[in-house]
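Re: the 318-residue chain
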Amino acid sequence: MLLSRLAECVYWAGRYLERSEAGARLVKVHTELFLDLPRSAGVTWTPLLAVTGSGDRYAVRHADASEDDVVSYLVVDADNPGSIVTSVAMARHNMRVTRGVFPRQAWEEVNDLHLWMLDTCSRAVDRRTRLAWTDQVIRRCQLLAGVISGTMTHDASYSFLEVGRLVERADMTTRVLDVQAEVLMSRRDDDPYADVTWMSVLRSVAAAQSFRARVPGGASGPAALRFLISDSQFPRSVEHCLIEVSRALIELPNHDKPMAACAWVQAMLEDVDVGDLDGPALHHFVDDLQKGIGRVHDLVAESYFPLASTDPGVLAVR
């Protein structure tokens, strides 16, 4: 069994790797949406700040949410603990502390990604080069995840990495829905941009192609919501993430409390058809989901690394 400190580092490495890829995808998809729709559609950059939960911190230093300022803040700002560059740096730090449990190629990949990002991050701010840059970040993060999955021993270390990665993924899916779905559900039925915008929501969590394959017809709000929250076979749905978190936890000792928290959130999903919820009810439901996922994180921390906040070797920011 891992030492508590090492387990926490591995857990946070999983969260930051997932956060880096998710952040790059959010910026890429929102840029494409901004380019596709006319100004009359009312697309702004504020939703990206809301999804990442950084609106208040951003407002301290910026008077308005211009494209350059928001993208720069979310991608390259070293003082933003949730920026893509910072997330990769924190993932690298936590993997460096635990280098012995990761395959050598995984360490080389994350180190190479970190150095490449420092050299090229200015390309993310310029709209002409942003999509190519974010594509490269997504591909490199997926390559790293594949290297880890394919070459790392699937022991307790891997279970902690998986729990971190999947808790972060479930949290990101609910964040996207909380910000985007409530607004979309409140729009008129004849909104000419509804399908485009719903597809953008699906692409934000890499769900568009799988959604088309499994759900006939257009990207209606209720169908997209059910898919992203309750489809047990789609790897980025909330339901699937919780199933896999439980599967990883059962390989670890002392898992009763975090597994019970997972079961509690899954029971919420079974008791409601999210497609039938209107705007305010949907917001309250997604808010409860986020609290439940946060409870899973809290109980993982309490069960396996109770001295988290006092360990200087771990870089962890929620």
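DSSP finds 15 helices and no strands in the chain.
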